[in-house]
Structures are given as C-alpha cells and as structure tokens.
Amino acid sequence: MKVGLVFGGRSVEHRVSVNSARTVAIGLRDAGHEVVPLGVADNGCWVEQELGEAALKGEIDSLTAADTEIRSSLRPLLDADVDVIFPVVHGTWGEDGTLQGLCEMLDLPYVGADVTASAISMDKLQCKRLLNDCGIPVVDYEAVTAPQMARSTADCLARLQRLQVPLFVKPSCGGSSAGVRRVERREDLEAAVEFALQFDDAVLVEKEIKGRELECSVLGDEEFEASAIGEIVPGNAFYDYEDKYLQDSAQLKMPAELPESVAEQMRDLAVRAFAAVGGGGMARVDFLMGQDEAIHVNEINTLPGFTRISMYPKLWQLSGLSLAGLVDRLVEIAVTRHRRRQRLDNTIKSWFASLGS
Question: 20 to 30 Å CA-CA from 178: which of 192, 268, 305, 347?
Fold first, then answer.
C-alpha cells in the first residue's frame, strides 16, 4: 500500500516524532509498503516530500518551513494520493484527536485511535476520571486550572493539602514529561503548579507512588492483545524528558521481573483501560506499582514512541511480532476500521433517504 507517514508537528515532541518516523519508515518498507513522507514543520506548516525524505534519511533532525499560513501549506497532504495515513506526530496537534479529525474530514484511513479515544487519552484529567468511573485503579490526584489559580491561589493550595509530599505536578495535556516537576517540599508546590500551567490550562497534582514504572503495549481493533510487560528504571529522580531523550541513562528491562500472575493482571488492566476510552489500533499503557504491589494505570499513550529506545515496538518484538509485522498489522487495522466506518455512514444515509421516500 501507499502509506503517508505524517511526522514532526508543532509540539515540543517534534524531534522525538522525527526519530519515531525513521523507525516506522523502515518497518513499513520492510513490510512491502511504499512510504510517502508527509512532514509537518515546527510551525505547523506541511512541507514538501523532499524535505520529509531528508529527515527520514537522517540528513536533518527537524523540519522548518518559511513563515506562512498553515491552511495554505496543506497541498503536500492533499496531493499525496495515499491509501492510508500513519501518524507519528506525538503530543498536541497530532496525538490529541486533531490530526485524526482532519483524516476523518478527508475520508482517509489512519493508523491508531479515533478522535474521541485520542482526545480523552491525551487529556490526563479526563482520562483519569473515565478510568476511575470504570473501576480501573488510578493514582490519587487533584486538579488545578488556570482560572482557579487566578481566582484564589490560596484556595487551590489548601485543596492540595490532603495529598502528602512528595508529589508530581504535570500538565493535563502533554507528553514526554514536558512541564513535569517532582515536589518534595510543600513550599515549592505553588511554583511547580505555575510552571506546569505554562504548558496547559489544567494541571494534575498526583501522589508519588514509590515503586516501579511498568509498561504494556496493546494492539487490536474490536478485540485487543497485550504484550509482555517492560520496566523502566529511571536514571534521574524520575523518568523526565532529559532521561528519556537526552541522557540515555534510563534502563529498560524486558521482560520485567514479575510473577506471572502480576504480569497477567497488568495485561488485563491494559486491555480494559484501552477499551474504556474506546481505543483502537495501538496504545502503550503505563503503570505504577507501589511497594505494596498495588497497581495503578498512570497513562494511556495512543501514539507511543517508535524511537530506538521506545518500549512499544520493543515489547512486541519480545512478544514475537517484528517491527515490519507490527506496522503492517496497524495499517491493516486502519483500513478495516475505515471500511467499517464507511458501511455505518452508508447505513445512516440510506435510513434517512428511506424516511424521505
């Protein structure tokens, strides 16, 4: 198939996305697909295929376009004539349902979760509320918004008193730990909240779970499969942006050393969590396991990383699915889901037509 590989984007994860795209391109080509690079510059403008191909070859590390209106730069996408879109635009304007909505409007099959599941999973606050309502364990938290802080910082800080330090303060929407701070002293909490509010208008303040960080990859359409469990041992105080992409100091353990009963519990929770948000295609579900072995779903990442250190493809390789097999399966799911959606649309239109007759 002719696969449009969309990467780059306006978020702080632009360079991470470029790295992920290189890996996905290799897998797609090994699976026999034709790859059409559809790069998005750091200002949101779509770039010509030649520039995107240069990024995939490693000749450049980021995409830059001349200042112009984003809407006037869509021609590379509109003229690509691809069979399916494979988005690897991490973070906002890519992982949050916006790119998925564009594909829906253009009637293009696309890899990954749909608009609703992408938007919910990207918004940590809404995702936690939904998972909690579905009986899936999440870390205890409070939420603070920019308008609330503007009205009364004292009231916001008072509401956070019930959470014992250390605490993690993070933007509700975002990825790669951008804007996240670990707070050990309560007097540092206000500054951490104000810092996180520079990245999003809503902030989560979560109780620290002292224990282990574990991850599971999920794959499927109407039914989901879960991979082996991996573990991240941070090189820093926590698994922050520098630890993930700059220092290369974190350790990845695959598979994680866990009793099979615990691993199976995590796989079940990963599938249940992804189903709860209405997911499809792929996700990496992140867990925190305390010293008491209590398991909490931390996040659902609907466009997980595909860099050389990323857990999502590595865990599937460990589970017996090669990179080429994985991306090929994701393309197949995208096409199948699109056909199902078209059938539903045709049924709805036929029903309305019958009313008119």
Answer: 268
